[in-house]
Design a protein that fits this description.
This protein has 323 residues and is an alpha+beta fold. The protein folds into two domains: 3-83 and 257-296, Immunoglobulin-like, CATH 2.60.40; 95-244, C8orf32 fold (Roll). It contains seven helices and 15 strands. α3 packs antiparallel against α5 (179-192). The relative contact order is 0.19. Keywords: Hydrolase, Protease. It comes from Pedobacter hartonius. GO terms for molecular function: peptidase activity.
């Protein structure tokens, strides 16, 4: 039974004094038969009162206001969690029966919201991919694994080419991104073949295996498999999300699961720094680098400019079109 101590430090630094900072936080880990919270400490600059409620998706959400003038806001969350492995679904020969059960979920709560997929420019291409990978003889479980592998193999894991606001159109065009982009594409694919899929926010605690997604919160997908339930799939690492994953929140996309978001009165320019530190039950502490630094709001980039990955991709596309 793995046990993890996780420190999640979120720090806003403003260019000048701000006030009336109203914030919405989802930093409370889930509790169920496979995940137990042994301790959770939450410290916030100014020591504001934090009111909590449970949202539509079953997430515990904190809400607070920091009214005094300030140049920095730090939210420090430290938790100790124990997890247990969940047996994966068993292989079955009754794929047709499972697909029939899957189709019957389209009008049932809570699956309705997790079946809505998004229209975007690359939709026809993605339909062709899902059609090729969802063989009639495959079960929903096998199909979900195939899609997870497809995203892992076809998309490049590159930090900095996308933001949390990046749409499916651009992710599909770039064929690159980070964990939330991989999760958004996989959930779209699953929903297109009627498999309910929910976006999951949390932490990956790989016990020094060097997996992708370390350094801040991680994102993956849970697919609903008949006669089993929700199965965690991590397309960033092409594996089943099990006892080394700590769950914070569920939702349709990142928007529903953002760990920290809010508004304030003051200048728009500020810096957000996020750091995650994991201590394992063997007493070894590991600081997960790099520290994520984001300027928010993201500055507008003139046409033809942007990061080098985008520029090189556009150049290659132009060359291919001229050939």
């Amino acid at each position: 039974m793995p046990e993890f101590n996780i420190k999640h430090i979120t720090k806003y630094t403003y260019e000048s004094l701000v006030k009336d900072s109203v914030n919405h936080i989802i930093l409370y880990p889930k509790e169920d038969e496979h995940q137990k919270v042994l301790k959770h400490d939450l410290k916030i600059s100014g020591k504001p009162r934090v009111d909590t409620f449970v949202d539509y998706y079953g997430n515990k959400v904190g809400f607070f206001t920091y009214s005094e003038r300030h140049r920095e806001l730090e939210i420090y969350s430290e938790l100790t969690v124990s997890t247990t492995a969940k047996e994966p679904p068993a292989e079955t020969m009754f794929g047709e029966m499972e697909w029939t059960e899957i189709r019957a979920l389209r009008h049932q709560v809570p699956y309705i919201d997790y079946l809505k997929w998004e229209a975007f420019d690359g939709l026809q291409e993605l339909k062709e991919v899902t059609g090729q990978n969802a063989e009639p003889a495959s079960t929903p479980y096998q199909t979900a694994l195939n899609y997870c592998t497809f995203v892992y193999e076809q998309f490049n894991y590159i930090q900095g080419v996308t933001t949390v606001q990046t749409k499916l159109d651009e992710i599909w065009k770039l064929k690159a991104g980070v964990c939330q982009d991989f999760a958004h594409i996989l959930s779209q694919m699953l929903r297109m073949v009627n498999i309910p899929a929910r976006y999951v926010s949390g932490y990956i605690c790989p016990n020094k295996d060097g997996m992708r997604g370390e350094g801040a919160t991680h994102a993956w997908v849970e697919a609903y498999i008949p006669s089993y339930g929700w199965l965690g799939l991590d397309p960033t690492n092409n594996c089943i999300a099990n006892e080394t994953y700590v769950i914070l929140a569920y939702g349709r996309s990142f928007t529903d699961c953002s760990p920290v978001k809010g508004v304030y009165k003051g200048p728009s320019s500020h810096k957000l720094t996020v750091q995650v530190i994991v201590s394992y039950d063997d007493g070894i502490t590991e600081t997960l680098d790099p520290v994520a630094e984001i300027i928010d709001p993201e500055p507008e980039i003139p046409a033809g400019q942007g990061n080098s990955y985008r520029r090189n991709l556009e150049l290659m596309q132009q060359i291919q079109q001229q050939q």
